Amino acid sequence: MSSRSDEAARPLVSGRDLGFVAGGRHLVSRASLDLRAGETTILIGPNGAGKSTLLRLLTGEAKPTAGVVTLEGAALASIPPWRLACQRAVMAQQARLAFPFSVLEVARLGVDGVGRALPRARREALIGGCLLAAGVLDLAARPYQTLSGGEQQRVQFARALCQLEAGRSLATRQALFLDEPIANLDLSHQLALLDMARMIAARGAAVLIVLHDINLALTYADRLVVMDAGEIVAQGAPAATLDDALLRRVFDVDLGLGRPPPQNLPFLLPQQHRQAAATP
Amino acid sequence: MTQAALARPGPAAALTVIAAGRRRYAMLVILGLIALCLALIFLGVGVGAVSIPPGRVAGILLARLTGGDAALDGREALVVLNIRLPRVLLGLLVGAGLAVSGALMQGLFRNPLADPGLVGVSAGAGLAAAATIVLGDRLLGGAAARLPFAVLPFGAFCGGLISTLLLYLIATRRGRTSVATMLLAGVALGALAGALTGLLAFISDDRQLRDLTFWSLGSLGGASWTKLAAVAPIILPLLFALPLLARGLNGLMLGEAEAFHLGVPVQRIKALAIVLVALAVGASVAAAGVIGFVGIVVPHLIRLALGPDHRLLLPLSALGGATLLVAADIVARLVVSPAELPLGIVTAAMGAPFFLWLLLRRAHVVEI
């Protein structure tokens, strides 16, 4: 019993004192961050704060120049790529395709490596389910390159879901990394994608999302991480982490949390959606 | 099975229908290509200065395989077994090797314009072959003259490998390969290799100049069983390694970082592909000279017909390249019969207009 609760408490991905220097510039310095199973961690910060770089360090795509990243206690650099691919999926910022693959073929890339031991019928069903979950099943036969930016982003999300699903048969504890996954999406798809990400976390995965929309970050995060100039300046529960002073200091805006706009200006709060989703 | 999937409503049903339709179409293309290739093999063995009907060709080949001696006597059997058959087989090998090399480089550089001929790899192998021809006698003494089939492919292989590595090192910064740099560097390397080959031609004697002309235009004319035995062990490993590379190259289409995230051992795939391309191009240049456009025309045709999935693209490029080169060789032998046109002229005359058409038609898709 106690060993089970130990496992739940132990972070899945852990970065200690991470630093990354490129071209003489410190893109990330002294960053320590734990990702826990079942938690949605959202990383916010102004342009150039080092959010994407930190994500790249945590996924193993880039090697930190200082500090160490561990996955289930093992150093990330010591895990072979195929093993890593079973345990975590990544959706990067923009993915351009060199040749005209169809949407179905792009999604299948997520299954081809990790899920090659699965029977074909199981693989096809898995791909279909993930395309449906990402809302792109009706695009399955379309060439990827003819899709709009938002549609391409949803297909990449479907591909990451495919990889995670296929890896579930080999690794029970998994992590999902999303780098600005909703940059090109309309509001309803933004909410649908973030709902799906939270559902994956609820099923036991550790989820890390880089977001620009502070409203959505506050709404969806279990844990909020704020970066500025390469350093983590605050992290914790959303309500306890972000305040007016931090907003002013990090994002350089003179705005207050929870303050309605003056003169009856119309405004829209995505929080309504989360409340509706939580109470069916 | 399709019926069962359709009866059960669900997202997988629609995908199964798409997949089944694609598979049937792919099967048709594959069978058609195999039939065309076999027909061209018979035609290639039959046509030439001495014309031999297909039935007689089949008889001779069958007799050779079953060990019946009666049909093997006479001039026709000699022509078929000692001249035409090795020539066609060499054409198959070289064509497959060049087309697959093109497909691999296009996948590796994530660019539809990459081709061993276009980015200077063939020119590098050609330069090394030229250096072996012109300088080999002076540097190696009698060894080069006594071991032409060992020294020449080795030299051409080294040339191909060196130019591929140079290209890759120049175009790669911090693990990312710049496609624009790669194409420009390839053009520059190709020009440099061409200039040095010209210099070698300038200092060569008459016999060497004739050999050089042969290399620079390409021909299957010198085919023999000895040559085939020297080239096959170099090109065949490339063809057998294709299944190892296909999935990795598919992942690379999304980019190197994404391929890594998918679990592809990116550096190992790149290294393997580069060595195999250098091997195959080097051996092809050594055996048949510089033959252009096979590496770019064939993979593009396959992509247009069946899409860019490397698990189909790579083996079918091999089949298509083999078919195309045997066909080009037949044309080369027929148009100015009883003389022969150099093979490089035929493939360039067919390939260059096709390439231009491709650029005009797909200018919006090709991004450099």
User: Which architecture of chain B does the CATH hierarchy give at level 2?
Assistant: Orthogonal Bundle
Shape of chain B: globular
What level of helicity do the residues of chain A show? 25-40%
Question: What is the number of strand segments of chain B?
Answer: 2
- Average pLDDT of chain B, rounded to a whole number, is 82
Q: State the CATH architecture of the largest domain in chain A.
A: 3-Layer(aba) Sandwich
Gyration radius of chain B, in Å: 22 Å
Spatial strand arrangement across the major sheet of chain A: 6-7-8-3-9-10
Alpha-beta content class of chain B = mainly alpha
Can you tell me the CATH class of the largest domain in chain A? Alpha Beta
Rg of chain A computed from alpha carbons, rounded to a whole number of angstroms: 19 Å
Q: Based on CA inertia axes, which overall geometry of chain A fits? A: globular
Chart the SSEs and their pairings.
The complex is a heterodimer of chains A (280) and B (368).
Chain A: H1 2-9, E1 13-22, E2 25-35, E3 40-44, H2 51-59, E4 66-71, E5 74-75, H3 81-87, E6 88-91, H4 103-112, H5 120-133, H6 149-167, E7 175-179, H7 187-202, E8 206-210, H8 214-220, E9 223-228, E10 231-236, H9 238-241, H10 244-251, H11 271-278
Parallel strand pairs in A: 3-8, 3-9, 6-7, 7-8
Antiparallel strand pairs in A: 1-2, 1-4, 4-5, 9-10
Helix pairs in contact in A: 4-5, 4-6, 5-6
Chain B: H1 2-7, H2 11-46, H3 54-66, H4 75-108, H5 121-140, H6 142-146, H7 148-171, E1 172-173, E2 176-177, H8 179-203, H9 206-217, H10 225-252, H11 256-261, H12 266-288, H13 294-306, H14 310-334, H15 343-361
Antiparallel strand pairs in B: 1-2
Helix pairs in contact in B: 2-4, 2-14, 4-10, 4-12, 4-13, 4-14, 5-7, 5-8, 5-9, 5-12, 7-8, 7-12, 10-12, 10-14, 13-14, 14-15
Describe this structure in words.
The complex is a heterodimer of chains A (280) and B (368). Chain A is α/β, with parallel strands linked by helices and 280 residues long. Chain A folds into two domains: 2-72 and 173-278, 3-Layer(aba) Sandwich (Rossmann fold); 95-171, no CATH class. Chain A contains eleven helices and ten strands. Chain A is globular, with a radius of gyration of 19 Å. Chain B is an all-alpha fold and 368 residues long. Chain B has 15 helices and two strands. In chain B, helix 10 (225-252) runs antiparallel to helix 14 and helix 13 crosses helix 14 (310-334). The two termini of chain B are 44 Å apart. Mean pLDDT of chain B is 82; it is low at 1-9 and 364-368. The interface between A and B is large, with 45 and 37 residues.
